[in-house]
Amino acid sequence: MALDKLIQFFSARLATLNSFDASSDQGVVRQTCALDLKHQFTYLPLFGFILRSTNVRNAFEVFRPLLRLAGDIREPGVAKNARKTELVLSSEWDYSPFVYREMPELPGFVMIGIPSPESANPLLVPLAGHELGHSIWRKDTPSLQATWEPRIRMAVIAEIIARWAAFQAAFNLTMTQAQFLTNVGTMRATWFPSLSLAQRQVEETFCDFLGLCIFGWSYLEAFSYLLSPGQPSARPTTYPPMPDRIDNLITASGSYGVTPSPGYRDRFNPSAPSPCPRLRRCSLRSQTPHASA
Amino acid sequence: MPLNGDLGAISSTRLGHDLPSVACQAAMELDNLILGRNSSLRGVAELSNRLTEEVPDVPDLNSPLSLVDPSTVVALHGTLQEACITGPSDNITDLTRRAGEIVQRLKTVSADPQAARSADLEGLRKLKDFCLILSRRAAAASGDPEEARPPHPYRRQG
Fold first, then answer.
1. B77 FRET partner, CA 20 to 30 A, in A101, A220, A288, B90?
2. ipTM of the complex
3. 0.80 exceeded by the pTM?
């Protein structure tokens, strides 16, 4: 079914390209071609992903439970035989599980990739809970993303205002705080990357919490199995620093009635390497160690 | 938690991450209209709906109103300046007001394409240019600030 939808999509794109002629606006033609080139980069890996979903190395025995879980999360209250959620469970020679988030041309599809070398490891199943979180972050209107956006934006602005002098110096700004709050140009040039990173980190935190909420102690153990003690190099800043992720998980465990194993925090490095210099300017990391959002 | 809805069919189309394609489709439809070809203007209508939703009339950037996808605001700001539709204003209220005007023009054209063509061909050309620039700007703004995962240390893309 996923392949059928992709074939429909690319057939429609081809028809569009074939509809151009010499009288067509060359700027429109060029932009259409550019976007279709991007589509090739975006969707071609999906064909390989779908192909590998048929590989016997996949843990087919977890397909039904994961599909049921995905349906329960994405379509609560909908009868099982009326659900539209589709799951593609595939594999990759990649160290950690991953998900293709809500692809525009494949609505309703949850596409989870499990590391091939760990296909026999049941600890990979709880980690799929995290990946399911990504699949619902942008789902529905208003989506979780849209619901959280104002809170994240206001938190970023509050952090900037709290350190206004440093912010002004970093970006050589002469405007007042009142001007700053209405200035889209400054947003674009200075704090938009910080906002984007904060949104991504909140999404990752939500996904951690969803995995913990569903799988409880198993999620904590799976997380530790895969990621402790943390990588030695600079972290991707789209994720919260690992110590913060652990602290957040432990805090959330209390809310979910989960008891982490003794010494759980000690399995991870106490501090994370700094982000690369290129992104340090975008870092609004406050003195408080926990995610406040 | 999100409520149940028409699964997927709404979600992707109502968010801004595919704005480049919608804006480009609108530009193509307007080009066809200018050339006198019969063509659906569904992309034009969809773009007007999307801008209405994603660029609300906010008093300032600290507003609790959702911008849905802030990259749309960033892309629109650059587009208005590049298309010379507005003066060099960075003010959010100017931006939302201009966005409202553009939305109204898009709605007028999609409601009665032939009347719009007869009335103001030059206006249609400007609207097409706006859509094209918006597509380019949105495509540029929608990239991740950083790659989702670090590249393999020994792998290089062609």
1. A101
2. 0.84
3. yes
Classify burial at A196, counting beta carbons within 10 Å of its beta carbon; exposed 0-12, middle 13-18, buried 19 or more: buried
Contact A65, A112 (CB under 8 A): no
Nearest CA among A199, A69, A79 for reference residue A147: A199
Helix, strand and coil in chain B, % to nearest 5: 60, 0, 40
Distance CA B123, CA A88 (A): 47
Summarize pLDDT for A93-111 with one digit per residue, the tens: 888 888 887 677 787 888 8
A115: β partners: A92
Which pLDDT tens digit goes with each residue over B111-137? 999 999 999 999 999 999 999 999 999
The one-letter code for the residue type at A159 is E
Q: Considering CB atoms only, which of B3, B68, B150 is closest to A149?
A: B68
Residue B31 Cα, gap to closest chain A Cα (Å): 7
Q: Which residues contact A175 (CB under 8 A, 6 or more apart)?
A: A183, A186
> Cα dihedral sign for A249, A251, A257, A259?
positive
Please give, rounded to a whole number of angstroms, the shortest distance from the CA of A221 to a CA of chain B.
22
- Cβ proximity of B30 and B141 under 8 Å: no
Determine which helix (DSSP H) or strand (DSSP E) holds B64, and give its type and residue range: none
